[in-house]
UniProtKB/TrEMBL annotation:
Residues 51-325 form the Aspartate/glutamate/uridylate kinase domain. Residues 357-377 are annotated as: Disordered. Keywords: Kinase, Transferase. InterPro entries: Asp/Glu/Uridylate_kinase, Carb_kinase. GO terms for cellular component: cytosol. PANTHER family: CARBAMATE KINASE, CARBAMATE KINASE-RELATED. This is Carbamate kinase. Residues 367-377 have a biased composition (Basic and acidic residues).
Length: 377
């Protein structure tokens, strides 16, 4: 009498489940039947995270009309934190920020301090505010005090362009210029102090930022705040650094940072939106996407050298100078950050836009108020 038995082996690994079934006769069987059933279960491949450098303007932490207080800054940071945390979950993120209002306010409080020291102070102040807000939504952020080398003989020192500090009416601005020797320029319908803004040449803490990205996933680096602390190398001894009286443009430094980190994308978040043609006019229309060639050919943003102009230049620089293929840049409103990455809001800059530009349908531009009187000085 033969007894038939069945033995089942189940082998499981992370991606495959295999069942082997063998029937055999227990005594002197002349026939053995073996059957194999294989069931493979492959989970869908994980979407590769993009490496993004995101630049948030100093004005996003200091809305026009609000007093520049720590309380107001923390309130603004708390409002933007959930949006940034969502981006950080889906992407490999590095955050940078402006400091125009904050560094200008510090300069009013401490007239004897140089702008490199004030820049470092503002970087610590804003970095703390942002890190606290991010921690409150479950994201650990690490502010890095970043020094950035500039050319102390740059033409930027001959024609200051970087707006810092609060806004003034024309009479008050003229009085400040005469009494303190400031350079004052129009900013919309108001006036503000301007200081030199040389282009960034070298980010000294770049390896520290890269190490955090590669070895501490889930940690959000905050770097090059306010464009970084401006320093230069002493000509007689290049290893020696000294501070420079300037404020580096955060968008230019953010572009440099994105290039150095081989980022996939560089995003500038504003309190306005994307790039517009005929901004502030009834026929205004927003660009959905554009090539660097189109933006340069139409001189997009150049009418506004204190606001959109540097942003467009920084976006173009990233796309053109990055060694990585297929990179993109974008600009849009802070509240639309997730939609910008999805291509639903803001303006994208990349090399492969048919006909050079694509317009976003169904949007009209907000009104823009310019100064109604020429500068009084």
């Amino acid at each position: 009498m033969f007894l038939q038995r069945q033995v089942v082996w189940r082998i499981t690994n992370r991606s495959t489940t295999t069942t082997l079934s063998c029937r055999y006769l227990s005594a002197g069987a002349s026939e053995t039947t073996t059957s194999t059933a294989v069931k493979a279960s492959h989970p869908p491949p994980k979407k590769k995270k993009q490496r993004l450098v995101v630049a948030v303007g100093g004005n996003a932490l200091q809305r026009r009309g609000d007093r520049l207080t720590i309380e107001n800054m923390m309130k603004a940071a708390a409002q933007m934190a959930p949006t940034l945390a969502e981006l950080a979950k889906e992407n490999e993120l590095v955050l940078t920020h402006g400091n125009g209002p904050q560094v200008g306010e510090l300069a009013l409080e401490r007239a004897a301090a140089t702008f490199d020291v004030l820049g470092a102070e503002s970087m610590g102040q804003i970095g703390y505010v942002l890190a606290q807000a991010m921690q409150s939504v479950g994201t650990t952020a690490v502010p890095i005090l970043t020094q950035v080398v500039v050319d102390q003989f740059s033409d930027a020192f001959k024609d200051p362009t970087k707006f810092v500090g609060p806004i003034y009416g024309s009479v008050e601005a003229q009085a400040l210029q005469q009494s303190l020797g400031w350079t004052i320029k129009p900013d919309g319908e108001y006036y503000r102090r301007v200081v030199p803004s040389p282009p960034p040449q070298e980010i000294l803490q770049i390896e520290a930022i890269r190490t955090l990205l590669e070895h501490a996933p889930g940690v959000l680096p905050i770097a090059c705040g306010g464009g970084g602390v401006p320093v230069c190398r002493v000509p007689a001894n290049p290893q020696t650094l000294q501070g420079v009286e300037a404020v580096i443009d955060k968008d230019a430094c953010g572009s440099k940072l994105a290039i150095e980190l081989e980022a996939d994308g560089f995003i500038i978040l504003t309190d306005g939106g994307g790039i517009w043609e005929n901004f502030g006019k009834p026929e205004a229309r927003e660009m959905e996407a554009a090539t660097p060639e189109y933006l340069k050919g139409t001189k997009a943003g150049q009418r506004y050298p204190g606001s959109m102009g540097p942003k467009v230049t920084a976006l173009i620089d990233f796309v053109e100078k990055s060694k990585k293929k297929g990179v993109w840049a974008a600009v849009g409103d802070l509240k639309d950050a997730a939609k910008i990455v999805a291509g639903e809001e803001g303006t994208f800059i990349r090399e492969d836009v048919p006909e050079g530009v694509k317009w976003r349908a169904g949007k009209t531009g907000p009104p823009r108020r310019e100064s109604k009187e020429p500068p009084p000085f």
